[in-house]
Amino acid sequence: MLRKLYDWVFELARSKHATPALAAVSFAESSFFPIPPDVMLAPMILARPDRAYFYAGVCTLASVLGAILGYAIGYFLTDVGMMILSWLGKADTFEASKALFQQHGAWVILIKGLTPIPFKLITIASGIFQFNFALFVALCAVTRGGRFFLEAWILKTWGPAVLAMVEKRLALWTFIGIAVLVAAFFAVKLL
Where does the record place the VTT domain (predicted)? Predict the structure, then answer.
């Protein structure tokens, strides 16, 4: 079963619809969607290392555009933004987050944009707290571009060797991947 899923992901990564799907997921993840674009970006780069930086660029641009939507949700539709934050389990930390944004807003955007923490938390909160919009867009471009281009460089440089290792022990690496995701989920809940 794992092999079929693995093959399906790589087949999708090579399809003509892969780039628009990557853009859509990246856009949506920055504003309301729970799945990070890395789950598409990584297989696409591994399937086509020659297009690694193109894919990172698509991911960055779509993510920044989605961040603008997330900001607009927080700014113009505060109740909807609070509902999304509540759904993500972060509405109860509103006052602490507000104080953090007032003191270190730029650093919050830069640091959290590089992590696996859902970026929509930052984009919606930035709108709710009325963070400077032009600075917000610039910081999103820097942090998301840094994340996706670093991922592209790592996968282009070491991806083929790692891919061969993963293919030999697919079940073990799947277990490790799930363990990392579970740990990241609990780390996000604690933040």
Answer: 58-151
Q: What is the crossing angle of helices 52-76 and 119-128, to 10°?
A: 40
User: Cα–chain-centroid distance for residue 66?
Assistant: 11
Q: Residue with structure tokens 């709108």? A: 127
Distances in Å between the Cα of 158 and the Cα atoms of 2, 17, 34, 90, 150 are: 23, 26, 28, 36, 12
pLDDT in tens, 124-151: 989 999 999 999 999 999 999 999 999 8
Whether the Cβ atoms of residue 71 and residue 127 lie closer than 8 Å to each other: yes
Count of residues making up the chain: 191
| CA 92 – CA 39 distance, rounded (Å) | 29
How far is it, in rounded angstroms, from Cα 188 to Cα 117?
6
Angle between helices 2-14 and 170-190 (to 10 degrees): 80
Q: What is the pLDDT of residue 9?
A: 66
Residue the block writes with tokens 């867009």: 137
Q: Residue 163 contacts by C-beta under 8 Å, 6 or more apart in sequence?
A: 46
